[in-house]
Amino acid sequence: MKISHRFRRAAFTLVEAMVALGLFGITASAAVSAMLRMNNNASLSRLQTGASTVAQNQIDLCLSDSPFNPQKGQVPPALTIGSTSTGTSAAPTVPVYTDPKSGMQVMGWMVTEVANTNTTLNGNDLNIYQITVTVNYRFKGRSYSVNMGTLRSSDI
Fold it and tell me: For the chain, N or C: smaller number of CB within 10 Å?
């Protein structure tokens, strides 16, 4: 039985099919790897956003707690000079992010530092406080932190 040349050229050889399948497999594995990296980066971004929100909320509390008139002895508790910790690395108590689908919660800890800058103008104390908030958390065995700072002056 003789096969015509026309049919021989129209078909793929086994080697050609195996090469095509190999290339497809390599491409598919690269795509899956890229998707896994993108998913991990998205998780890290969500956590960073959550920690930034926690830090910004603490900054907002320090900026809005009233009255703040140190010259009259009116200093709100949020602006007490020194360092205040909420939670610890051993016992994190600050919720950083809760996944809405799985319910997994990432907890962290926060340190708020308040210091008087001792800024004066013509011999008068301006009562400017420097506030630094640091939110720390762990995810997949690695430590991350968000650090924010601001200044607050007396209300009068």
Answer: N
